[in-house]
Design goal:
Elements lengths: L1 H8 L2 E5 L4 H12 L3 E6 L2 H15 L3 E5 L7 H8 L5 E6 L14 H29 L2 E6 L12 H22 L3 E6 L21 H11 L5 E2 L3 H13 L2 H15 L12
Parallel strand pairs: 1-2, 1-4, 2-3, 4-5, 5-6, 6-7
Helix pairs in contact: 2-3, 2-7, 5-6
Bound molecules: NADP nicotinamide-adenine-dinucleotide phosphate (NAP).
């Protein structure tokens, strides 16, 4: 299993958002399969520490790239740093969220999220996809979200960025299939990471390892994967039992109750 993964997607993988949460777990599980990893994020010290641990534990090579993916031209540094290595897997995982009432987050924060969650993964998929197609092999994983499957009042803009990613990944999956390039959207529900720090533990909050495993087990088999029974059930209700209007109303009422930021005043804005 490991050797076929390595043959198909190795020898190097590029993982964005690899300084914390789901991205660190991607780096571990991919390195465990024998691939060398390029770790991308803004916090250099964290990247260095992840790289050191991975190199010692799995005996693979590592590189780090300190990059703010929400900035114009970010990809030039990345493409420059990897031009002497053979990358076969791109994990477009970095992301941030803005939750709460529509005007609660500043315009700047919302635009930063739009650039990070949509523009950056598109640019990297465009650039790496071209290389993979010309080699006749490779894989691209996008981290989307279960919020991609229906409208999410109080997570409106975040969910819209994740819907963009899911749609892009599914279409690329179809177009790239006969070119031997696999594309997958990973659609997690609530997962332990910095993004969900402070949330109460419980059955709805998954650990990162099974979330990432679902992606690595399903690339090349499906266009998207929803990890976990509770998340699968939620997507089933929102897409197969309710219509779009019903899903929007149910989700909006639930999030209004669950999210303090759906009710607080603008002065709490971060
Ligand atoms: N946790 C959940 O419940 C959940 C559910 C569904 C989907 N997701 C998605 O999962 C992905 C990973 O998030 P996570 O849950 O693991 O959260 P996290 O622990 O906050 O990780 C986010 C990662 O993205 C990086 N990042 C943030 N802003 C960046 C920027 N401007 N440029 C470069 N890198 C940046 C962060 O690194 P630096 O700060 O060092 O740059 C970090 O490595 C995201 O796309 C998120 O939307 C998460």
């Amino acid at each position: 299993m490991h050797s076929s993964f390595l043959e198909k997607y190795g020898p190097w993988a590029v993982i964005t958002g690899a300084s914390s949460g789901i991205g660190v777990e991607f780096a571990h599980q991919i390195a465990e399969k024998g691939l060398n990893v390029v770790l991308v994020a803004r916090r250099k010290q964290l990247l260095e520490s992840v790289a050191t641990t991975i190199a010692a534990k799995y005996k693979v090579q590592t590189r780090i790239i300190e990059s703010d993916l929400s900035k114009d031209g970010f990809h030039h540094d990345i493409l420059d740093t990897i031009k002497d290595i053979d990358v076969g897997l791109l994990v477009n995982n970095a992301g941030m969220n803005c939750e709460g009432q529509f005007y609660r987050g500043s315009l700047e924060r919302n635009v930063q999220m739009l650039q990070l969650n949509t523009r950056a993964p598109f640019i990297l998929a465009y650039e790496f996809g071209k290389q993979f197609i010309s080699k006749g092999k490779g894989g691209i994983i996008f981290t989307s979200s279960i919020s991609a499957f229906s409208a999410h009042p109080y997570l409106s803009h975040y969910a819209a960025t994740k819907a963009y990613i899911l749609s892009l990944a599914e279409s690329m999956n179809f177009e790239f299939k006969d070119k031997n390039v696999d594309v997958l959207a990973l659609c997690p529900g609530m997962t332990k990471s910095e993004m969900t720090r402070g949330l109460k533990d419980g059955p709805m909050l998954m650990d990162a390892p099974p979330v990432v495993k679902a992606a690595l087990d399903n690339i090349g088999k499906q266009a998207y994967v929803v990890p976990g029974f509770i998340n699968k059930t939620q997507v089933f209700i929102n897409t197969r039992i309710l219509n779009r209007n019903g899903a929007k109303n149910l989700t909006g009422s639930m999030l209004k109750k669950m999210l303090p930021s759906a009710n607080k005043k603008k002065k709490d804005s971060k």
